[in-house]
Amino acid sequence: MRNNNKTERVEVMALFGYEMTPCQPLSFKKRGEAEVEVTELLRTHIKFIGTVAHHIFDVMAGQRKYSLEFNSSDLSWHLTTA
User: Fold this and answer.
1) For the CA atoms of 12, 17, 23, 27, what is the dihedral angle to 10 degrees?
2) Cα 14 to Cα 3: distance, rounded to the nearest angstrom
3) Rounded to an integer, what distance in angstroms lies between the CA atom of residue 73 and that of residue 35?
4) Where are the beta strands (DSSP E) in 1-82?
5) Rounded distance, CA 66 to CA 69, Å?
6) Residue 61 has pLDDT above 60, yes or no
7) What is the spatial distance between Cα 73 and Cα 32, in angstroms, rounded to a whole number?
8) Which of 37, 25, 1 minimizes the C-alpha distance to 77?
């Protein structure tokens, strides 16, 4: 099975330390494109690559599902789309 997912670096507006959710992405922006509002947070989980924690947020933006990944080492955000 081939993985056709595309990953790109994005800017994310996130709310940190809100109620029971330590981080919640509110919107994201690809280079040269309009800002996309996150309409629903579906699930969060953490994966470790070596000693670096990657926080993954599965979100809905309108009718489309996205995965936003926060790298805790270099503080970068990446968007994964199918």
Assistant:
1) -30
2) 28
3) 25
4) 6-18, 21-29, 35-37, 40-49, 52-61, 64-71, 77-81
5) 10
6) yes
7) 26
8) 25
Question: Is the Cβ–Cβ distance between 76 and 62 less than 8 Å?
Answer: no
* Span 12-48, pLDDT tens digits: 999 988 676 778 999 999 999 999 999 999 999 999 9
d(CA 36, CA 18) in angstroms, rounded, equals: 21
Give me the pLDDT at residue 77, please: 97
* Tokens (6 digits) for 69: 């990944």
Q: What is the rounded distance in angstroms from the CA atom of residue 33 to the CA atom of residue 15? A: 22
State the pLDDT at residue 1.
45
Distance from C-alpha of 71 to C-alpha of 54, rounded to nearest angstrom: 5
Q: Specify the DSSP element, H or E, that contains 1.
A: none
